[in-house]
Write a structure and sequence with these properties.
Order of helices and strands of chain A: EHEEHHEHEEHEHEHHHHHEHEEHEH
Order of helices and strands of chain B: HHEEEEEEE
CATH superfamily of the largest domain in chain A: Reverse transcriptase/Diguanylate cyclase domain
Strand content of chain B: 25-35%
Number of helices of chain B: 2
Shape of chain A: globular
Oligomer: heterodimer
Radius of gyration of chain A: 24 Å
Radius of gyration of chain B: 23 Å
CATH architecture of the largest domain in chain A: 2-Layer Sandwich
Structural class of chain A: alpha+beta
Number of strands of chain B: 7
Shape of chain B: elongated
CATH topology of the largest domain in chain A: Alpha-Beta Plaits
Helix content of chain B: under 10%
CATH class of the largest domain in chain B: Mainly Beta
Strand order of the largest sheet of chain B: 1-2-7-3-4-5-6
CATH architecture of the largest domain in chain B: Ribbon
Number of helices of chain A: 14
Chain lengths: 422, 143
């Protein structure tokens, strides 16, 4: 039988914070979003204290700290490095792997004949990652991707288990699906589950039993695939070439509200510059830049949200063009008299830089184009570790508004922040 | 055909062996006779690190391992994939702190310093000891 596995790191960011802090072994840990706005990761102990995912930090801060919980600002250099290590180890164990997110990967277990072997592989895999990197993982094994998600869900919710769940025989599958609400199924969101409820489908089992033609007609081929996958028919293949990104977003909530256009502009410029770096890193060009600004959702009296886009005549990857577009978009949406709490820049409509549709009216001078590319490459190179070159419209040096008061050291990526023996 | 001088990149920013290819304008009319024999420069990672995914660097503070040639501020190469043996130098967490000591498994579990100024640490019942990994090398810098 063909089997797949989903390896999923437990409470990944919180687990990363523990790798170099053995003193926090059983202490509740939460990790906050950029600018310390919301809780984005919780250790098992923090979950047990009732801290909900995404809750604004200020709402739970007092109680949480009083109960001895530990809090961290997000430390993405650390999480990224540990993720890379986990993925490298998995990559060495199987022929095909799809890295699905920073803390999840699908594995093709084509070398494995039966469920006993699969289970043993799971234990080996879990122990190795635990020992080599220090990150706990759970593993769901099943014949289809959608079912590995279900298996992983069961592995997570089985207390005192091995962290590995194998879902392969028909009886087990039916049994698990009966207990699973449809909103827990991979690819079924909130809206879809409401619509399914309206036609009398409540559990994953009922969806698996639904008439394929009815699902395709009434819903979509995507949901049809999900139904087939729940029945054990593999439809979604392991994709080892990750698809290029469709958009890039850089956004932040501000620590203190921003009211004036002159204060907002440098912040938007910072986001635009960062988005440009990401764009070139992905080797893409974008035809559209959008800007959004909004007031706090907790401020009920003064509410405003603005969003507008600037369209480029032909796709660009030059930060100077992105800055110009972002600035124009910002000017059209800014309204005086609102305390802005959040803003962001979004790049979209990508195309690969070597296949550029030239604009009819724009004379592209190859020499200039080459010079612009060189300039961006040089600036990206110089700004690699630490920003050294700023665009004039950016925030002046040192006054970057990102707040990370409780960030842990970059233990694995910076010579001056290595863990130290006592 | 010549390679153009593109701009000033400080030679210090580049590995010494690459400098000549980028910074000076060189004629490429006659390819270097060494081209067919180019090998990659010696890489310390290759010498010091066997299993990159499981290897971490840890800085030493203190002189308790001086006689094992591990000085204060040395950088330890710690491989978490190697099973620690009796006599291995290890980084361990003891009651929540990282320590670097020689591991003694028999006759009694103990962490041995390598400096007569310090006492062996016998692990008492109820103490929390985790071996993080085996120290495979230490880098002492002199200048």
């Amino acid at each position: 039988m063909k089997l797949l596995a989903l390896v999923d790191c437990d409470n990944f960011y919180a687990s990363c914070e523990r790798v170099f802090r053995p003193d926090l072994k059983k202490i509740p840990i939460v990790v906050l979003s950029n600018n310390d706005g919301c809780v984005i990761a919780r250790s098992k102990e923090a979950k047990a204290m009732g801290i909900k995912m995404g809750v604004p930090w200020f709402q739970v801060k007092k109680n949480y700290l009083a109960q001895g919980g530990k809090v961290f600002s997000s430390n993405f250099p650390l999480y990224g490095d540990l993720s890379k290590r986990v993925m490298n180890i998995l990559d060495g164990m199987v022929k095909r792997i799809e890295i699905y997110s920073i803390d999840e990967a699908f594995l093709d277990l084509q070398h494995i004949q039966n469920t006993n072997q699969a289970y043993e592989f799971g234990i080996y895999c879990r122990n190795t990652i635990r020992q080599w990197v220090g990150i706990p993982v759970r593993i769901g094994i099943a014949p289809t991707k959608t079912l590995t998600k279900v298996a992983s869900h069961i592995a997570k919710n089985t207390n005192g288990g091995t962290g590995i769940y194998c879902l392969s025989n028909q009886k087990d599958i039916s049994c698990s699906l009966k207990a699973l609400p449809i909103r827990e199924i991979w690819g079924v969101g909130h809206n879809l589950s409401r619509r399914l409820n309206q036609v009398g489908i409540y559990s994953a089992y009922e969806l698996a039993q639904a008439d394929i033609r009815f699902i395709r007609k009434k819903f979509s081929v995507v949901l049809e695939r999900t139904v087939r996958e729940l029945r054990g028919e593999s439809c979604i293949q392991i994709d080892d070439h990750s698809a290029p990104k469709k958009q890039i977003v850089v956004s932040r909530s501000f620590r203190t509200k921003v009211e004036s256009l002159s204060a907002l502009k440098p912040l938007i410029s910072n986001f635009a510059v960062r988005a440009g770096e990401k764009l070139r890193h992905e080797k893409q060009k974008c035809a559209q830049v959008s800007v959004f600004i909004s007031t706090s959702k907790f401020n009920k009296q003064l509410q405003y949200r603005g969003f507008n886009s600037f369209q480029f005549p032909c796709p660009v990857d030059d930060t100077r063009s992105i800055l110009m577009g972002a600035n124009k978009a910002l000017n059209t949406i800014f309204r005086d008299g609102y305390p802005y709490a959040k803003a962001g820049v979004l790049l979209s409509q990508f195309s690969h830089p070597t296949f550029i549709q030239k604009s009819l009216f724009e004379v592209t001078d190859q020499q200039h184009l080459k010079q612009d590319t060189n300039l961006m490459q040089t600036i990206d190179g110089l700004n690699g570790d630490q920003t050294q070159i700023y665009y004039a419209s950016q925030c002046p040096l040192g006054s970057s508004p990102i707040q990370k008061e409780m960030v842990s050291p970059k233990y694995t990526t910076n010579w001056w922040e290595l863990p130290t023996t006592k | 055909m010549t390679i153009n001088y593109l701009g000033s990149i400080s030679a210090n920013d580049l590995p010494a062996t690459f400098t000549k290819f980028f910074v000076e304008p060189v004629s490429v009319g006659f390819p270097s006779p060494a081209n067919d024999y180019l090998e990659s420069p010696i890489d310390l990672n290759q010498y010091l690190i066997k299993n990159g995914a499981a290897t971490f660097l840890v800085r030493v503070s203190g002189d308790s391992m001086l006689d094992a040639n591990i000085a204060d501020q040395a950088i330890l190469i710690v491989d978490r994939s190697l099973k620690p043996k009796h006599g291995s130098i290890v980084v361990a967490s003891l009651d929540g702190d990282f320590v670097c000591k020689r591991l003694q498994l028999k006759p009694r579990l103990c962490l041995l310093p390598e400096n007569p100024k310090y006492e062996p640490i016998y692990i008492q019942h109820g103490q929390d000891l985790d071996i993080m990994g085996t120290v495979t090398a230490a880098i002492n810098k002199f200048e």
